[in-house]
């Protein structure tokens, strides 16, 4: 039996278990109050994960400014004694002090804790990430540091232990610099719980109408704006890959169960995923290598095939001076990928991406087809997720629906989903999974996507990577990315494709210009917009977020 067939069988067995409800509650126990979660046991990861990070060539600009460094470059410099963790933390804190009033990327900043951890790492490195400062999305438990999910429900909650993913990163020597701002309870772009826009796209800091991605907006902005070296987010409806595409990052949503969601405030137990938002494929691979593995507190992580060698997969292969694929790969192009509705700028970049990949020996670009009822399976039946949301938060809805903030209506909507609708939705999900595994992947090895919904519904891995820039309104340079979908537990193949592409392009090395000085930006950004004007330019999940906090207001609310 091939490794792919073993992976598929393990994935189908795990999916059936989760669909039956066994996976419910693996995030945190919500027993009516946020403080009830304090009764949950902590997961101690033991010794640092055995991850080997190779030395890499360090770009000249990094030597002048360590906030420019990729994670791999920072590890290389620290290992060689050319950079201390304390100097890196101080450099990032300096940028936070200057530009956080504009970006509003953080919900909380632990300057003292990060400084102390950096000093300890400089005395004795404790793992492969030894001394690397990270931004953690604010729905991950962080011991002694507020975890609010940017919500009224958890606004005063300070967990007594770390989420498993955070614990693994810290055991590897990672440093928690702060908590990334997010959409309230992970349902929209980053706003206050009542819907006021906070975090911006780091590439368009004075224009809040440019989409910064999904609910992991803060971690994405922190990495793109050089306020953190790397970050972790969560994805239930695109919130790793969308912020990555929007802000010129490489984001990786693993196969369901590959990384633990224990200690993550839940949204949908059949769709919640944890993963990295990073600057390069190699950085994403390093983060995943540390995060991946079984967790006794998360049934979805148990009994799976062993994690692959992600870091090796993310290193480009060269034959002489020419970049080649590590393994032969068929890259599937579905019918909607080159549809005119994408717009001329995006289409040109997608065609250039395909041409670049086709020129790499070992890569073949092939057309793939979808079944006739594809739109139905990935559209209408996507709503069955709403009942899972409601089940987790029902005690708070019963107490006061306003506790759910700007997205209260979507939580209430889950109450009105009938049992027969839910059952039909589960059947549609099973059909979709079969169509993808046997149909789409019968034609290719990885498949390009125009959105994350399909693979979020069925738990398959996705990788987002930058492919260029286009002008949007008055903004001359806004990132454009693309999404690759993979087969169960084949994150390594997605990384191989991304590594080859990034070896022959430099989009991923580009950073946004520093934003205007906060005093000047405050005048521009604080002006409220009318609801109608904001809604006309917002994505559907962003509607209702109507104006931008001033820097002073925001700092008082995110302190």
UniProtKB/TrEMBL annotation:
InterPro entries: Amidase, Amidase_dom, AS_sf, TAT_signal
PROSITE patterns from the UniProt entry: TAT
Domain Amidase positions: 87-412
Biased composition, class Low complexity, residue ranges: 519-538
Domain of life of the source: Bacteria
Chain spans, region Disordered: 508-559
A Pfam family reported for this protein in Swiss-Prot or TrEMBL: Amidase
Protein name: Amidase
Organism expressing this protein natively: Actinacidiphila acididurans
């Amino acid at each position: 039996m091939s490794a792919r067939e073993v992976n598929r069988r393990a994935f189908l067995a795990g999916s059936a278990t989760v669909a039956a409800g066994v996976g419910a509650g693996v995030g945190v126990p919500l027993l009516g109050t946020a403080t009830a979660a304090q009764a949950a046991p902590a997961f101690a990861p033991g010794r640092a994960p055995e991850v080997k990070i190779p030395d890499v060539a360090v770009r000249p600009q990094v030597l002048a400014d360590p906030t420019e460094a990729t994670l791999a470059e920072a590890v290389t410099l620290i290992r060689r004694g050319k950079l201390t963790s304390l100097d890196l933390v101080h450099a990032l804190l300096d940028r936070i002090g200057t530009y956080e009033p504009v970006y509003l990327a953080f919900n909380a900043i632990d300057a003292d804790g990060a400084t102390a951890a950096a000093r300890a790492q400089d005395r004795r490195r404790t793992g492969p990430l030894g001394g690397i400062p990270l931004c953690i999305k604010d729905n991950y438990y962080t011991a002694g540091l507020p975890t609010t999910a940017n919500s009224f429900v958890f606004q005063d909650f300070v967990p007594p232990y770390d989420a498993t993913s955070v614990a693994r990163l810290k055991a590897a020597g990672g440093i928690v610099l702060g908590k990334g701002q997010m959409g309230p309870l992970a349902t929209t772009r980053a706003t206050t719980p009542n819907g006021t826009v906070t975090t911006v796209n780091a590439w368009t800091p004075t224009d809040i109408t440019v989409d910064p991605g999904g609910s992991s907006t803060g971690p994405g902005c922190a990495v793109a704006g050089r306020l953190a070296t790397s970050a972790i987010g969560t994805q239930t409806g695109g919130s790793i890959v969308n912020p990555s595409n929007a802000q010129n990052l490489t984001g990786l949503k693993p196969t369901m169960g590959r990384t633990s969601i224990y200690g993550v405030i839940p949204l949908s137990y059949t769709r919640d995923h944890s993963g990295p938002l990073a600057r390069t494929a190699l950085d994403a691979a390093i983060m995943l290598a540390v995060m991946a593995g079984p967790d006794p507190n998360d049934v979805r992580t148990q009994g799976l095939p062993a994690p692959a060698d992600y870091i090796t997969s993310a290193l480009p292969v060269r034959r002489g001076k020419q970049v080649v694929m590590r393994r032969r790969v068929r890259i599937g192009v579905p019918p909607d990928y080159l549809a005119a509705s994408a717009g001329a700028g995006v289409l040109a970049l997608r065609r250039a991406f395909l041409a670049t990949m086709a020129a790499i020996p070992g890569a073949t670009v092939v057309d793939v087809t979808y079944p006739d009822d594809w739109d139905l399976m990935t559209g209408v039946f996507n709503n069955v997720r709403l009942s899972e949301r409601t089940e987790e938060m029902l005690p708070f809805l019963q107490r006061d629906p306003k506790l759910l903030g700007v997205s209260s209506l979507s939580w209430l909507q889950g109450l009105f989903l009938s049992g027969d609708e839910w059952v039909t939705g589960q059947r549609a999900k099973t059909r979709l999974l079969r169509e993808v595994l046997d149909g789409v992947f019968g034609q290719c090895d990885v498949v390009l996507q125009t959105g994350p919904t399909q693979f979020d519904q069925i738990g398959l891995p996705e990788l987002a990577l930058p492919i260029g820039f286009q002008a949007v309104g008055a903004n001359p340079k806004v990132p454009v990315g693309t999404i690759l979908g993979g087969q169960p537990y084949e994150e390594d193949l997605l990384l191989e494709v991304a590594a080859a592409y990034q070896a022959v392009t430099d989009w991923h090395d580009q950073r946004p210009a520093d934003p205007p000085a906060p005093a000047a930006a405050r005048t521009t950004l604080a002006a409220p917009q009318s609801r109608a004007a904001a809604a006309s330019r917002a994505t559907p999940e962003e509607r209702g977020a109507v104006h931008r906090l001033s820097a002073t207001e925001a700092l008082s609310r995110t302190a």
